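Budget justification note: compute hours in this period were largely spent on complex prediction jobs such as the one shown. Inputs:
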Amino acid sequence: MKRLFLLFFFLNVVLAVNAQKYMTKNGYIGFFSHTPLEDIRGDNNQVAGILDISTGELVFQALIKSFHFDRALLEEHFNENYMESDKFPKSSFRGKITNLSLVDFSKNGAYNVMVEGDLTIHDVTNKISTKGTIEIVAGGINASSKFDIVPEDYKIDIPGVVRDKISKAMEVTVTMKYAPVANK
Amino acid sequence: MKTYVKIALSVVLFIAVSAILAALMLYNKKHADTAKAKPDFIVTATSLQKEFEDNEATASARYVNKILEVTGIIAVVTPLANNHLNLSLKTGNEMSNVICAFPAIADPSKLKTGEEVTLRGECSGFLMDVLLKNCAIIRNKK
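Corresponding output:
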């Protein structure tokens, strides 16, 4: 029995080490914009993300309605007036780490990476490239990035009166804590 | 004539004050209190997930933006930054849960994997899982 347990344990370790795909369903994407009146921030802790460490491919998916604002009115305006989330409920990113060879996935540590890919918001897709950090930790991989997007690039109309008051670009923060996907 | 002016002035003042109050109330409007709100639908995590998996469009039209009361077995408790918390409920499909986002929660240690829980939240839609937001625990016992 003990032997069987040990065998099972080693099998698990081997599988974990060999895991090529890492996943989370509790990833974070937030955005922030400063206005003279108040700071606007939306937080989404229900982002699904997959990272394939053999190819460096990254995929994120989020529901627009999952963004949380402290003020209910902001959340309503965000969904109804700007993002039209009933029409365009999902946002996604599909891309790649372009300097994957610099990352040693077998050793704990932090690495600066470059990421390139297609970001789809409000049914408009744009190519983006940004810097990010990959951190190999016990039991998983943490990834984070920060970049700016301009709402007009995604055909998000903000009325002039409001537009003048908020900064041209919104700061987007991404934080993922991936866990290995068990091989099938 | 003087009383006439007085009445006119007080009417204008009354309208102005009401408008400011209404605007302030709207500005400070709170999120729906799901702990007290009457649910639009009462479902199990298993049947809710199945409806979305079978036909996402139909299920979305039915449930999105509605307040759901969901009962299920806790699969994972994920503590998040700023005292927020995600709770995953098991369904018939191992790869797809019902994930419920909670704003700051009083006593997360009461929530344990494997226990049955009933909660209320607003449905945001379906990604790989059914997502609820602004959740509140209703019952946390067998």
